[in-house]
C-alpha cells in the first residue's frame, strides 16, 4: 500500500513539475518578438545600442530580421514578423491602408548622402542631388545601386526620375541587389558613387578613398516609421508585446535613447515621434 501511495505521489509530483516546466518555457518563448527592419538600422549599430535598453525596460527580447524595406514589408505580409521598423513612408502608408499594419508611427529621421571618390571625377560635389545624378547619367562615373527594393533604393529611384534619367541611368550604372554595407564596399573597391543613409556611412569602416560629396538637399530627408503587423491578417502575431516596443520607442525614454546613440560624438538618428 505504501509503495502504491509513494508511486502515486511521485506521479503527481512529476506531473506538477512538468506543468511548471511547460509554463516557464511557455513564458520564456512568449518573451520575444520578431522585428523586420532595414539594413540601415542594423548596420548603423543602432539596434545593438537600442534593443538592450528596451529589454531593460520591458524584459522582452527582439529578434531582428534585417532586409531592405520592400523585403521587410513582404516578410510582414507573410506573417513572419510581429513589428516593422522601416523607412519608405509611401510604402508604409500603403501597407497600413491595405490592412497589413495596425497603425504607422513616425519614429526618427536622418538623411541620405551621395558618396564617391574623393577626387570626384564626375564633378558632382554640392548640395543638389538631382544635378549630381544628371552628371552621372551622362556617363561621367560609375554608380552602384542597391537594386533591392529597400527604402534607400526607393529614394534613389525617385531622384533618378527627378533627374529625367529613370530609363537610362548612365553606362556606369550597376545594380548589386545587396544591402547598404555591401553596396558601400563595392563602391569603395571600385571607385564608384553610391547613395547611402548617413547612419550606415558613419559606422562604415572600409571607406578607402570614398567621401561625402552631396548632402544638405531637403529631398535627401530620410524618415523612419514603426508599426505592428495586423492580427486580423495573421492571428499568431504577438500584438501586445509588439505594441510594447512601439509604445517604448516613441516614448520620451525611447526617443532619448535614439538621440543618445552616437559614433565619434556624431548623432546618427534624430527622434521625431512627437512631431
TrEMBL record:
Instruction: Report any Pfam family annotated for this entry.
Output: PBP_like_2
PANTHER family referenced in this protein's UniProt entry, alphabetically: EXTRACELLULAR TUNGSTATE BINDING PROTEIN (PTHR37945:SF1)
Q: Does the keyword Ligase apply?
A: no
* Keywords, alphabetical: Signal
Kindly list the residue ranges recorded as spanning the membrane.
none
Q: Where is the PBP domain?
A: 29-252
Q: Which organism is it from?
A: Acidovorax soli
The protein's name is Tungstate transport system substrate-binding protein
Signal sequence, renumbered to the chain: 1-30
Domain of life here?
Answer: Bacteria
Protein's UniProt keywords contain Signal: yes
Amino acid at each position: 500500500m505504501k509503495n502504491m501511495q509513494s508511486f502515486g505521489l511521485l506521479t503527481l509530483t512529476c506531473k506538477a513539475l512538468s506543468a511548471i516546466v511547460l509554463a516557464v518555457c511557455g513564458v520564456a518563448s512568449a518573451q520575444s518578438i520578431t522585428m523586420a527592419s532595414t539594413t540601415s538600422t542594423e548596420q548603423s549599430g543602432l539596434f545593438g545600442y537600442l534593443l538592450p535598453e528596451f529589454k531593460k525596460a520591458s524584459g522582452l527580447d527582439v529578434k531582428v530580421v534585417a532586409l531592405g524595406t520592400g523585403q521587410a514589408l513582404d516578410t510582414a505580409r507573410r506573417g513572419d514578423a510581429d513589428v516593422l521598423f522601416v523607412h519608405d513612408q509611401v510604402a508604409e502608408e500603403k501597407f497600413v491602408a491595405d490592412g497589413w499594419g495596425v497603425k504607422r508611427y513616425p519614429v526618427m529621421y536622418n538623411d541620405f548622402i551621395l558618396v564617391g571618390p574623393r577626387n570626384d571625377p564626375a564633378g558632382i560635389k554640392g548640395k543638389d542631388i538631382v544635378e549630381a545624378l544628371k552628371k552621372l547619367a551622362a556617363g561621367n562615373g560609375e554608380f552602384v545601386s542597391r537594386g533591392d527594393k529597400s527604402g534607400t533604393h526607393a529614394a534613389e529611384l525617385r531622384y533618378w526620375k527627378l533627374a529625367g534619367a529613370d530609363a537610362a541611368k548612365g553606362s556606369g550604372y550597376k545594380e548589386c541587389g545587396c544591402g547598404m554595407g555591401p553596396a558601400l564596399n563595392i563602391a569603395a573597391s571600385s571607385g564608384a558613387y553610391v547613395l547611402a543613409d548617413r547612419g550606415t556611412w558613419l559606422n562604415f569602416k572600409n571607406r578607402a578613398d570614398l567621401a561625402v560629396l552631396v548632402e544638405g538637399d531637403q529631398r535627401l530627408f530620410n524618415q523612419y516609421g514603426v508599426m505592428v503587423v495586423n492580427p486580423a491578417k495573421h492571428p499568431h502575431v504577438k500584438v501586445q508585446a509588439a505594441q510594447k516596443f512601439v509604445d517604448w520607442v516613441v516614448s520620451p525614454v525611447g526617443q532619448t535613447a535614439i538621440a543618445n546613440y552616437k559614433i565619434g560624438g556624431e548623432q546618427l538618428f534624430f527622434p521625431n515621434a512627437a512631431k
